Amino acid sequence: MWGREIAKTTCLIAALLVLNALIGHWYVNVVMKGSIPALTYLQFEPEAARVDTLVLGDSHAKLGLRTSILENAFNLAVPGQLYTETYYTLASQLERSDTEIRYVVIGADPTSFAEERLDEWPYLHHYANYVNYVEIGRKRGRPFEYAIRQQLGHFAPYVGRRNFMLSHLGRGEIRGVHLDGNSRMERGALLSDETLTPLSKQVRARRAKRRADLHFGDGAPFHPLLFDYFRRIIALCADHDIEVLVVKFPLTPDYVTAASRHIDLAEFDRELDALIAPYANAHLLDARSWFKGDPSLFRDSDHLNAKGASKLSRTIRRELSELRRRAS
Amino acid sequence: MLFNSLQFLWFFPTVVLIYFLTPHRHRWALLLIASYYFYMCWKAEYILLILASTLIDYVAALKMSRCETKKQRKKWLVLSLCSNLGMLFGFKYANFASQALRDALSTVNVFYETPIFDILLPVGISFYTFQTLSYTIDVYRGEREPQRHLGKFAVFVAFFPQLVAGPIERSKELLPQFDEIHSFDYARVKSGLKLMLWGFFKKLVIADQAALYVNAVHDNPERFGGLTLLIAAYLFAFQIYCDFSGYSDIAIGTSRVLGFRLMENFKRPYFSKSIREFWRRWHVSLSSWFRDYLYIPLGGNRGTTTRWCLVILIVFTTSGLWHGANWTYVAWGALHGFYLVAGRATGSLGNRLFGEVELSRARWVLDAGRTILTFHLAALAFVVFRASDIASAADMLMGIPMRFELSREAMLAGFSIVDFAAICLPIVFLNGIEIWQGNRTFSTALGAAPFPIRLTIYCILILGIACLGVFEGQEFIYFQF
What we know:
The complex is a heterodimer. By secondary structure, chain A is α/β, with parallel strands linked by helices.
């Protein structure tokens, strides 16, 4: 009896492993092949040895900085990326023998510290290779859960990704995960041609409110773990003599007003200033109220479009040039 | 703690391992600690309510057993009823009653600000309250002796597999099992795990996917035409069935792994040929509770037809109210009461019209027709159950015929065809499984199948959960009761 049971169990496990491998292969190599992180690293690898400036962070940095305007730069930001993941992204790049990184540009906007983002895992298969989720899980008091997620990222990255797989089957692209018809990638930067111009003031305000409610609506707005890892990024840069330009990206007044219903922006700014202050290698650029919500420069209430990114990037280039001059 | 959480993934194997390594005489303590921890993961301080309920009913039952007269026993029963129902009323119905009083007074132009309290509904309060009440009522009736071991009684009240959403167990079935010695039995454990897998599939793949469509429609019902509303009604019928029966399967499977037997709570209700049969197959633990502790004491089917109709309406309206503090639940219960009354009134007419068909080969056509009709009656009643208020429910029910439009866009309601298929195909699979299993339980039917079929079903369930499961921590619907 036990022999039969073992044989049957072995058959079941073997069948599941084979099917898991097939579905996993399809997911990584077909569904996510053209995803933003996949395309980013495809562009980055041939350039890695020549790059001395990395743009890191989430969609604000991804869309808000046109790296072709900066010198020797590449945009490694990923939409939805958490500072926990950014830290390990940077650490893995610094471990490369051919690295020449001297400058990092990183976004620091309220939404980047929002608690609601901590449980989103869109690119687990990508991050599982170099992010130490077990350590993050220990800090969050959920080591078991994070350990499971790490293993899922390696062996079954499609688990829980229903929407991605069905969207791919239906349309071949997944909005927000793949490039859509209005955007293109250039040295890692995601350039969008959408603008807020066609929308009325009321519609812009309504959409800004919806986004702010989505980012900060439930429970505590910020999570201390994200502040901790942001500090660790700056400290890691300090250990490697890397200058960090911390950028508060432009936001529309509608978004600032809507977000202010949930968060104390002045308190957030004070906390950020206090976090950066001890590090001589960190320099703050507050561009939040720049562009005064000019609809032709924004893709949505808290993301620049290609035109806005170009304009901001010219200022960032001047800041970086100044840092290079001081370094030499 | 939710069953469909990673926390449960380490909690359950840990409890099972320690349980079988613990000597039998101490196992009640382990189960009690595990059950209290399970409940306190949600909100620690509310464990005091379960403790209060446990102590009151333990003492009341012991006191009742020492009373010589029924009058003396009644005092303790009243204490148990008042304290348990008082807590239930306070946490669940106080604001509803206050609002209802306010609305009633305003209709006679009396405007009085009745108090509204900021109270969080304790998870599972309706379930464990009814479970302990059944115990004290059984002791009062002399149908069972009181449990003298406080610890085992406490485990009976708080037993984690069925604490928050049933099945509502009877003391004479569950309490003696805490005295049984449960050894590790491979076949029993395997059977329990199979049932848990089926429960997770029903919850994560069928119920939570259906919820995507149902929630989209219910958020803006006025935007949608009749076909969309009808499809949402069908999908909600399967959502609530799979959500609740999925939970029950996980609860029964979890208990079975530990060696405990819980009652079967759902018996393929959508294959019922009448509403009467529906209520023998749907949420069996609750409907049998109402039968034994409300319907029969009120007279049952003794007495005149008019009295029976009144009793039925009282029982089902109360059952509706048990589900939640909202007029929609009351209306849903009353609607089912009305169905039963109407079913009895038209029963003899049906027999006269179809009596000969019953005996003929076309019987299956009649049975199919009855099954479809019963499903539609149940599904349309669930529209009332799901709606936010009576007006929305009425609007949706009226909207089905009045705004009916047959089109692909109406069917999809903004979802892609792939998404819609992903929502519907598992429901087809569910019905296929239920037709195949017949009157057998899922575990029995699966155990009797040839190995290649079992292997295929296991792969479909496991990979279905992995690929199509909705993992955003969706609570079980019946948690809110």
